[in-house]
Amino acid sequence: FKYGVLLNVPVETLTNVKLLQAIDDWYGTRYRYGGSTKDGVDCSALTCTLMGAVFGATIPRTAREQYKASERVTRDELQEGDLVFFNTRGSGISHVGVYLENNKFVHASSSSGVMISDMDESYFRRKYVGAGRVL
Q1: Which of 37, 46, 64, 90 is deepest in the core (most CB within 10 A)?
Q2: pLDDT digits (tens), the chain, 135 positions
Q3: In the structure, how many helices (H) and strands (E) does the chain have?
Q4: 104-109 vs 95-99, strand pairing mode
Q5: H-helix or E-strand containing 13?
Q6: pLDDT value, residue 11
Q7: Do residues 68 and 92 touch, judged by C-beta distance below 8 A?
């Protein structure tokens, strides 16, 4: 039910239970640059963990490497499990999350830890660089 509300979709349309359980397991974990544990995780470690646990995909460790290793897709083509990339520091790819649906993505936010955000929020709309598919 929680994810139906967070994603603004009917709960019966949520079918990837494995993904939702993995998100729930990490949800609220604080952000720590370079971190990869429940004591603190950064954005690219979270995407590595989710992609491996849920989709069986092995991806590079950093957001920039994940961008290079993924096949470009447009916003209109986004599917659950695609990676979404942002330039949050003015130096190229510096943030990544996993696309869910309905313009929502899960990521490790430096200010709020692991959470779900909307790509249409003004901050993310301004910082969006592109999306990639690794599956």
Answers
A1: 46
A2: 788 888 888 888 888 889 999 999 999 999 999 999 999 999 999 999 999 999 999 999 999 999 999 999 999 999 999 999 999 998 899 999 999 999 999 999 999 999 999 999 999 999 999 999 996
A3: 5, 8
A4: antiparallel
A5: none
A6: 86
A7: no
Question: What 3-state DSSP class applies to 97?
Answer: strand
Query: Residue length, the chain?
Result: 135
Q: Write out the two tokens for 84.
A: 């979404």
> Which two three-digit tokens encode residue 114?
């692991």
Catalytic residues: 43, 95, 107
| 33 CB-near residues (< 8 Å, 6+ apart) | 42, 110
C-alpha separations of 3 from 56, 59, 65, 110 in Å? 22, 25, 29, 21
